[in-house]
């Protein structure tokens, strides 16, 4: 099975604390790089090529999901999109749910492609439709990013389409092999309606009442081979990261691109919208080996991946990787678990992650290994060179907390990041509750005469289940676990519920001792500047808006701070990456593991070192 059903009651790790192949590769290339991006959660510049890869893969998968026996080459790209989704973001297993393919009458075999070339023409027409929509979607996503960089006009639709067509050509080779070599029992089982527990997405549900709706009679048809050879991939309509494969002990997870399994063998394919040139091609090889290990351990160490492939769509090349042996997979499993224990079971600080990167590896087009230039240093092209002593920056030092600022009589005493507190455990009574058409109710609470609104920002709790109990009513005593308290410009309090917090209907009041009066409205903090960002747009009233922000960090964590452009002083424009800055009279908030700050009119920023 390519997807793991997690028993939340046994999952002591949680989705936010697992390792992934990208994290392992990042750590192996440079432990400081891992710390910046995974521990401090610094975000790299968002260049268009990062989004192009997503669009290309989505267009490919949406085309693979479709069938020439259901759709004309010119049909809308959304016909199979409206599938039933469960609360966990996965395709629903409720038998009463209706799937879009069930609403479509299959076409006659006499009107279907009869040759590989005809099937390819149909698929290319579908690719063009899906790619236009996918590129438009990721372009809008890129435009929303605070750290967007580059120029979207550099993105070539024709080049993206060429990469998509290369992938379909690779897949059609598999279809042709299926058509020529399929075992009769495999064909009979498919025609009888047998399905995998996690079937390849095709617009149908998990089970058929009888034969497969697209089955023919006699010898296998080319369109049947298209259906049977279809690889498993993540359902395009599913929630992000909802269809991961997860280690039985929960400390490692991955998401496969394509899994071919129609002939009883397992082939995992990694899709890359690139030519395969450069150091990262080495990471792709290691990622696939980790995926082979993950498949092995999630199948009781009894089922093996036989083939691993990287599809370099920019080079129109398939690179085959030797599947690791049992000994190699056992060693890999042990090493990754040790790394997870090292990274996740202790408090981390920057000193634990020296800026000692590994050597740059060389790869030519198609991921062919070659010698890397001797003068090339990983730090030279690192995103964090300006703040890291391995590059052009200086080593982190602990700044003093008390500062005398120009124009102020009293000194400012900053609070260390570790002492910043925006989360509370408190008990309160529901003063009013309003159930709307949305699932999350609108709640107002009262505690010792003080009132606050409750804002349920997300319904899914980090360890599974809802962030609030069902059936809440007025005058109920409820318990807020790890909830965030903030205040608006009027001073009105709001209790926010994010993935790390929840509301409970029962509890021991001694475990929820905090009060609304424990909330602190303003803070003074000092940190090292990682980067600045800006966002702008047109509001609903037609007026232009602009926001500025920055991310600062100490030796253990980072804080993302933003505010309206007019609320920042001239020191914001003067500050450079690597500077130490003091922000006084700052509002604090949080989302998951990320602390956030809000600049107001009375906030002051000073460069102090």
**What fraction of the residues are assigned to beta strands by DSSP?**
15-25%
Mean of pLDDT: 94
Top-tier CATH class of the domain at 1-39 and 244-393: Alpha Beta
Helix content: 10-25%
Low-confidence parts: none
Q: Which CATH-level-2 architecture of the domain at 1-39 and 244-393?
A: Alpha-Beta Complex
| Spatial strand sequence of the major β-sheet | 11-12-13-15-14
**What integer value in Å does the Rg equal?**
27 Å
Number of strands: 22
Number of helices: 10
Helix vs. strand class: alpha+beta
Q: How would the global form be characterised?
A: globular
Largest sheet: 5 strands, mixed, barrel
Stated plainly, the CATH topology of the domain at 1-39 and 244-393 is called Lambda Exonuclease, Chain A
